[in-house]
Write a structure and sequence with these properties.
Blueprint lengths: L2 H19 L25 E2 H18 L2 H16 L11 E2 L5 E3 L2 E2 H18 L2 H17 L1 E2 L2 E2 L2 E2 L5 E2 L13 E2 H17 L3 H18 E2 L4 E2 L2 E2 L9 E2 L1 H18 L2 H21 L1 E2 L2 E2 L2 E3 L2 E3 L2 E2 H18 L2 H18 L11 E2 L18 H13 L4
Antiparallel strand pairs: 1-2, 2-3, 4-7, 5-6, 7-8, 9-12, 10-11, 13-16, 14-15, 16-17, 18-19
Length: 389
Amino acid sequence: MSQMVAEVRAELTGHIIPFWKGLRDDVWGGYVGLVEYDLTRRPEAVKGCILNSRILWFFSEAYLALRDESLLAEAYHTYDMLCRMTDPVNGGVFWSLNADGSVADGTKHTYNQAFAIYALSAYHRASGSAEALDRARTLFHTVESHCRDGNGYLEAFTANWQPESNEKLSENGIMASRTMNTLLHVLEGYTGLYKSWPDDEVRKCLYAIFDILEKHIWNPEKRRQEVFFDMDYHSLIDLYSYGHDIETSWLADRTLDLLDDPALTARIRPILLAMADQTSREALTDHGFVNECDKGVVDTKRVWWIQAEALLGYLNAWERTGEARYREAVLNQWRFIRDVMIDRRPGSEWFGYVKADGTPIGLPIVEPWKCPYHNGRMALEVIRRNPDI
């Protein structure tokens, strides 16, 4: 085991896992939904489906990697909460619950459904629960029935599946009818489901998503994914989301491995490697990975999830190409994460955001989007791949 792999494993088992175990809410269920920058815990905060589905995925996959029974117990605790987030009348999962279990936000977002599928599929693999797999399959059919039209996946709906505006996944002053981000995580959710349930219908959907990525999302001239679209896939903004490109570069490559179709891989993998190459030229520095470029203006803050995804993206690129520059990028990213992003204060985890000079930006340590999904996944992937680095 290399020094980096040993350090990443120690970060997972000695820091990330204990932190999230410590946020377990045995009164209301699930996990505390907000921890302020000063480490004040807010058990009264809403519990988001994104946060809890990602926690379920994390503890399930951590159990599969480490075989620590306490992790399976945490996964079961989160599974119970995710079941409570399911609408018993109209199907699908709600956006969020209040701490007492009542519905806080009844929006049905495709992004949320995808992460619930991902989490339930992982929990099935960890626990053997037939109920969890049945719930994942039901959500898959719900998405295909309510969230998809003839051209791809739609975004937001009311509790009874009427179309709704997409504030939740639109940014930078525009309102998107379709997003790259939702498509990516439908791909991820369906990949997890296909791993648990290799059904032909799921496989066909994965092929269809790759077609959309290739024909509409990927911009070959700029060597990037476009981010926000109208219904006809016209890009709405000149935005380069560096983090999503480097995340896609390895996450979609994992799906190619699962599908094991040489013709599909020959079409798509060059696109994914081009994403990694382009981000290495535009976003990678010796001091972390910058955020995004909006209409030519680069946002230089360092974001926790992007640092983790960059490490994995370059690790995957190094394994695919053998190019030494990617190996060095992996090591540089780990040094930056270890020395800057990890919050060494007792009772904390990772900083969410830091400035270019490494100064923390005082934003919450836990909130509906900040969870153990990105940094925990990074650690689990590094342990699984065990690179000689």
